[in-house]
Amino acid sequence: MKSTPAATTLTTCAYCGVGCGVSMQPQGDTFSASGIKTHPANLGRLCVKGSALGETLGLQGRLLQPEIDRQPVSWAQALDAVADRLRAIISEYGPQSVAFYGSGQLLTEDYYVANKLMKGFIGAGNMDTNSRLCMASAVVGYKRAFGADAVPCRYQDLEQADCVLLIGSNTAWAHPVVYQRLAQAKKDRPEMRIIVIDPRQTATCDIADMHLALRPGSDAALFCGVLNAMAECGRLDSDFLQLHTQGAAETLRAASEWTLARTAEFCGLAEEQLRDFYRLVGGSERLVTLYSMGINQSSSGVDKCNAIINLHLATGQIGREGCGPFSITGQPNAMGGREVGGLANQLACHMGFTPEDISRVGRFWGSDSVSQSAGLNAVDLFRAGEEGRIKAVWIMGTNPLVSLPDADRVRAGLARCPLVIVSDIMRDTDTTRAAHICLPALGWGEKNGTVTNSERCISRQRAFLPAPGEAKPDWWILSQVAQRLGFADAFAWQHPAEIFREHAALSGFENQGSRAFDISGLAQLSNAEWDGLQPIQWPVNASNPQGTARLFTDKRFYHPDGKARLIAVVPRLPLNAPSEAYPLVMNTGRVRDQWHTMTRTGKSARLMQHLSEPFCQFHPDDAPQIRTGDLLRVSSSHGWLLLRAQPDPLQPRGSVFVPMHWNSNFSQQARVDALIEAHVDPLSGQPESKHMPVSLRRWRAAWQAELFVRGENNVPPLTPYWSRITQPGVSHFTLADSSRPTDWLVWVNEQYPTAGLICQTADLGDDGFSLLAWCEGELQLAFYARRRAPAVDRQAVVAAFSAPPQTASQRLALLAGRAGGDKAPTGAIICSCFSVGEIPIADAVRQGCRSVQQLGDALKCGTNCGSCIPELKKIIAAQLSTLTAGEVK
Q: Which terminal Cβ of the chain has fewer Cβ within 10 Å, N or C?
């Protein structure tokens, strides 16, 4: 890493849509991260991922020079090649043969330039984004109901509500700071009720007063049922419905079919529990529903969103403190992408492809080439590449060969595309391997611009690191290509603040309050004022110069008549139904300490400690032949995965859970989206990622092993199963194979030559083999093979590479995979902030710690970000249940 500046920098977190303010303080040649107490999103809190941001800034694996066909070239050569090849394709096949695919990792200024170039000057609507996979259904739901993509709430509403419904969101792991704010509000106001609606019993249930474990995919029926119940008990706001909405009669008539009995049967819930749920909702004057990917990632996601919004409109619980339907996004700038037109069905600044909007944007941009219609959304865009209709695609800051459904088909489609351009920070990803031209972009910490979080709050992302190698801002790269294509005057910016001002001016152009998104009050900011911009919620204009915390307080909406729309919803189950061949339903999602496809969080050894291998969680009765620690093959009609088995009685019968994060740099066969069929919502184009029929089968391993090799860049061994676990200065792999080597020493030497090294071995016969390889007293390699997954003290082995054991007994202990002397193993890491393992936590409970606070006092676990607190409570409960009166001290 290059030398770092001495000053502290205030910026915004790179991860989820909470949009936390982060202070980055230099510490030697790296940085430490802490929360900004004055930032409205997090008020000083950070989750473990945010706390570890400074550990992900290294340049290992970075793309630092432009490449054509994997060969380094100058920027001039690369930019000329991009422009020349795009021009030739457009000339031969027309503008509709070109597509851009962006990312919520782009800053708003980057997004704006990409959208302007594609839709305004190339003249095709084919600019879409990976946010299509995250919240496109929420966008359409809001637009149908309110006439605009306008999130009405703020985070404070969650703390001020009488009742909060969390649906389709494991908030504790996916949006930890929001969860921490909710947990604190519950502690401050015990009368608050929190209801978790999720087929799984997740960590979020730790603070719940009620958990509704509904049938997967039945969410819309639940909200139709509760709407009907509110009508039956006189809980509707008749005046609000009459004066401020349309569609109420038809919607309530459709909901009336969802009686208590029918809803309970459809959702797989007990009638008494459903009745209690209705009572809690009906008794709440202030209700917030927080929803996320579990709702949106559905073939009927838009209807689910509108079923939620219907409840709030019908009861008048919107536009006031502690109320509202609140969609929370998964990426740091998914909202910014929505604002500039990053979705293929948007033009710019929340304008669509009406003749009036096309004319307005064309006049503002000074272009006669503005696209006349919406473009291809993510799934269709890559399908068009496979079919030969898209001849050139430019992918920016995302990894679709891991994140898109039917990912292997996407790979095959890119292989047929004549021109694949990738702008990224990493050189070797699943997607860059498919590229003809790779362009090195700046990463978080190096970029300068703005992002918008889930509560419409615009924050500055400030650079605190110098540009590494030849990496450039995305807006600069796009502008240089645009100039070479002949559009120099429209893309002549010298600073990102100029782009922001143009974007802000367009948002207010011929607006007069007709469009929700309006930040024209920021269009005159100087560069210095833009640099110092404080977090602010839009709209920001002459009427709201200080921003707008909560929308619809005046009960006026953005449909032409000023009224909101209730939408009659007909609930239906997902299109993919289990079968005899594939009897279980696979749900995908996030884990606590990882982010997207791990290109950033995978760099942090601390973040790899908690859940270090890809896994499959299932109810033991669904696969009784598979035990904890086994490897299992998860198969669908589209492919298969090889994962670590995690039987869990809290997992609902008939459903399995697989994390979304692992890519082919971190595991041999764990790209979960390769299994998923590309069914999409017909209105939003968002794929169904939560409901894919699969089967489980134990994969019989003749041996399993853990391998540690000095150096962080070693290639994985040639085994059917491997998974990489990031460690400082060491390549660490878990391995398995279906056949046993005839000679272990020969096998290890074939993978990593040990000639000239001093080898210390332990042949355990049928039980396995261990090997340590030394050079001049320093450990070079450690290998532990067993019939089942070996129990190795990983921290002790990694430590031996930097501090070799000094005595014969310590080396013998290391050969057995243990620390020498009286140092006890830690077990699985529970608290990533302080690397506190399950074994010392359990010991502390047996020694008298009976609460999370007491564990924190003794071990520090749970005292920083708080993300591990639900697991600490589980360990306390499990230990106390096994202790007898005579064992308790």
A: C
304-318, 567-581, 754-768 — most confident range: 304-318
Average pLDDT for 173-202? 96
Residue 757's Cβ-side half-sphere holds a number of Cα atoms within 13 Å equal to 22
Percent of the chain with pLDDT over 90: 89
Joined tokens for residue 796: 């002790």
Q: Summarize the confidence of residues 353-374 as an average pLDDT.
A: 98
Contact between residue 733 and residue 724 where contact means Cβ atoms under 8 Å apart: yes
- Can you tell me the mean pLDDT for 326-338? 92
First to last CA, the chain: 50
**Banded pLDDT at 5 (limits 50, 70, 90):** low
Report the candidate in 474, 513, 432 with the shortest Cα–Cα distance to residue 116. Answer: 474
Q: How far, in whole angstroms, is CA 455 from its chain's centroid?
A: 17
List the one residue out of 616, 449, 862 whose CA is nearest residue 876.
862
Task: Tell whether the torsion through CA atoms of 762, 644, 669 and 583 is positive or negative.
Answer: positive
- The 8-class DSSP code of residue 664 comes to T
CA distance 767 to 786: 6
pLDDT above 70 as % of the chain: 98
Q: Tell me how far apart the alpha carbons of residues 393 and 382 are, in angstroms, rounded to a whole number.
A: 9
Ordered DSSP codes for 459-527: EEE---SPPPTT-B-HHHHHHHHHHHTT-GGGG--SSHHHHHHHHHHHHHTT-TTSSS---GGGTT--H
HEC-encoded secondary structure of 213-247: CCCCCCHHHHHHHHHHHHHHCCCCCHHHHHHHEEC
Question: With a threshold of 0.85, does the pTM exceed it?
Answer: yes
**Cross-strand pairs, 774:** 758, 779
Mean of per-residue pLDDT scores for the chain: 94
Cis amide bond preceding 496, omega within 30? no
